[in-house]
Design goal:
mainly alpha; 75% helix; elongated
């Protein structure tokens, strides 16, 4: 089997890791700013979701290269980890959407008094 560099596997792993840390880092940074509140961390949700989607697409590309015999086993493992991290990143983004929706609902209900 011929092996070659598979940049898609590395990129998938990197994008997946970035998608997982995006929202927690945004929430953590709210602790150090007076102008940046916790609800503003919601702007990181689409970034995390896009990075997760990118990670999964790159993992698919790396898997196709592997099926063609153009990538080694180690690269396939990296692509699998990248795919899982991408799914976790998308899950975190969805959890963030739910949290913002509940916050908005509670704010609305609280303002009706």
């Amino acid at each position: 089997m011929r092996t070659s560099r598979n940049g898609a596997a590395w990129a998938s792993l990197t994008a997946g890791l970035a998608s997982v840390v995006t929202l927690p880092v945004a929430v953590y940074l709210t602790r150090f700013s007076d102008a940046y509140e916790l609800v503003h961390a919601g702007f990181a949700i689409p970034i995390g979701a896009l990075l997760g989607t990118l990670s999964m697409r790159l993992a698919g590309r790396a898997s196709r290269r592997s099926a063609l015999g153009l990538a080694g086993d180690r690269r396939v493992g990296m692509a699998r980890v990248g795919r899982v991290l991408g799914m976790v990143g998308i899950g975190l983004a969805l959890a963030g959407v739910v949290a913002l929706a509940v916050f908005g609902l509670l704010e609305y209900a609280g303002s009706r008094d």
